[in-house]
Amino acid sequence: MSGDERRGRDDRAQDARRDARGRQRGEARAQGRAGRTTAAPASRARAGDAARGAAYDTLRAVEGSDAYANLVLPPLLRERRIAGRDAGFATELAYGTLRLQGRYDAVLAQASSRPLDQVDRPVLDVLRLGAHQLLGMRVAPHAAVSETVGLARERVGAGAAQFVNAVLRRVAEHPLEVWLTRIADAADPGGEDAVARLAVVESHPAWVVRAMRESLVGSGRSADELGALLAADNLAPRVTLVARPGLVSVDDVAEQTGAQPAGLAPTALVMSGGDPGDVPAVRAGLAGVQDEGSQLVTLALVAAPVAGADERWLDLCAGPGGKAALLGALAAQRGARLVANEVQPHRVRLVEQALRAVPSDAVEEVRTGDGRRVGQQEPASYDRVLVDAPCTGLGALRRRPESRWRRTPADLATLSALQRELLASAIAAVRPGGVVAYVTCSPHLAETQLVVLDAVRAAARAGTAVEVLDAAPVVAQVAPAWEPVAGRQDVQLWPHVHGTDAMHLTLLRRV
Question: What whole-number distance in Å separates Cα of residue 353 and Cα of residue 364?
Fold first, then answer.
C-alpha cells in the first residue's frame, strides 16, 4: 500500500471515529475548503481564552438551566480570576449576545448551510458569540473568527470548529448594515410588516414589539418612538448607584467613585468605570447599585402627601431589597418605621443584607409572608405602602437580556392576576388618608393601567373608596428635570427618553 493510500485510510478512520463521538466534520466539509482558516497550523487558536470561555458558559447556563446571566457571570469571573478589561469583555460578550440573539440567529440562518434548528445548541451558542464579536463589538474579524474557532475546538470538538469557522467567515463577508438590510427584507419581503422588520432587526419577539407600541401610545407618547425604544433595550445600562439619605451623601459617594449625578433622582450617581463592589460605601451598605428609575419611584412614594400620621411604612414585596433599603434610610430621617415583607425566604435574606446599615429603630421587621394576605391580617395599619409587583420585566430588558426570549403572552394572565391581588391587599393595608405606590418594571398596559383600573373598581365594590393621585407633580417635586406627559396622572419612565428602566408608577390614596 502506498503512503498516500495509507494516509487516506487513516483519514477515513479518523472521520468515522469523530462521527461516532458526535462531531460535525461532514458538515464542515460540506461548507467547502474556502471556509477554512488560512493561518498556519502552529498559529491557529487551539482553545478559547478565559473571557470567551466564561461568556460561553454563561450562555449554556442560561439555555440549559433557565439561569439568569447577571447571577451566573459575576461568580464565574471571580472564580476564574477574570478582572479588568477581560471581565468587561466577557460581560459585554455574554450580555450583548443574549440581547441580540434574535438578530444574530437571522444572520446565521443566512450564513449557514444547514437550518439552525438542526445545529446543536452548544454549537449555536458559539456561533452567536462569534457573530456578536463580528457585528456588535470592536473585535478585528480575524481575531473574532480565530478565537471563536478555538473556543469551539475546546468546547464542542474539532469537526464543529470547522463548521463554526466556515459560518463565521461568511458572516464576516459583510458589515452590520448589509446584514440588517438582508434580514429585514427576509422577514418582511413585501415591505408592509413594520413589526416583523423591527422584531428581527432590533432583536425582540414580535409580541413584545406590539406590546411596546401599545404601551407608548397608551402612555401618551408617539408610536414613532418604537424603534428608539427597542434600540435602547439593546444598549448596556449605566451602572447607577444610590446614595442612601442619612447614611452617606452624594458627594461622599462621588468622591469615592468619581461618579457623576445621574440627572433625575437626587440620590442617583452614574459610574464611568470600575467595580461597584469595590466602593467602600457600597460594601458597608451605605450606598448600593440601583437603577435611577427604581430610586425615583421610591422617592415619589415618600414625597406624596398623606393626611394625618406618617409613622409606619410597608414594602409589600421587598425582595431583593434595593427599594426597601432606600425606604428604610428615608424612614430613619422621618422618624418612621419600615416593615419589609417578602414571600421568598432566600430573598428575605437579601433584604436583610440590603438593610444592614439602616438604623435599627427605623426597621420594625423584615419578615417572610404572602403579600396577598397582609391586607386581611393588618387592615388599615400603614401610612405608606409600596407594591413593587412581580411582573414580566419588560422594562428591564437591558439588565435581564434573556427575559425577552423566556416571557410569553401567556405569562401576562398569571402575573396580572397576582398583581391585582397584591394591589388589593395594599389598599386594604393602608389606612384612610394613606398612600399606596403601585410600581412595576414593565410598561405593558395589562400590568399597569388595567391592573390599577380593576383594583380601584374592586375596592369600590367592596366599599373602599380609592382615588388616583396625580403622580407627575410629586415626581417633579423630587426630580425638577422631570417632564410630565400631558393628560397622564401616572408616570411611565422609558430607557430611550430617561435612560432608566421602563418603571411604571401609580399613586393611590385611600379615602
Answer: 15
Grid coordinates given for 471: 403622580
Distance (Å, whole) CA 505 – CA 305: 15
Cα 191 to Cα 188: distance, rounded to the nearest angstrom? 5
- The reply to whether 441 belongs to the active site is yes
| From 325, 340, 386, 441, the catalytic residue | 441
Q: What is the mean pLDDT of each run of 10 residues along the chain (511 residues)?
A: 43 39 38 39 51 97 89 94 94 97 98 96 98 97 97 96 98 98 97 96 98 98 98 96 98 96 96 92 98 98 96 98 98 98 97 98 98 98 98 95 94 97 98 98 98 97 96 96 93 97 98 93
- Residues near 278 by beta carbon (within 8 Å), at least 6 away in sequence: none
Strand 430-440 vs strand 504-510: parallel, antiparallel, or unpaired? Answer: antiparallel
Residues in CB range of 414: below 8 A, 6 or more apart = none
Please name every residue paired with 365 in a beta bridge, in sequence order, or none if there are none. Answer: 339
Helices 101-111, 158-171: inter-axial angle, 10-degree rounding: 100
DSSP strand pairing (382-388 vs 312-315): parallel
What is the rounded (10 degree) CA torsion for 243, 389, 316, 510? 100
Decide: helix, strand or coil at residue 433.
Answer: strand
Say if residues 157 and 126 touch (Cβ distance below 8 Å). no
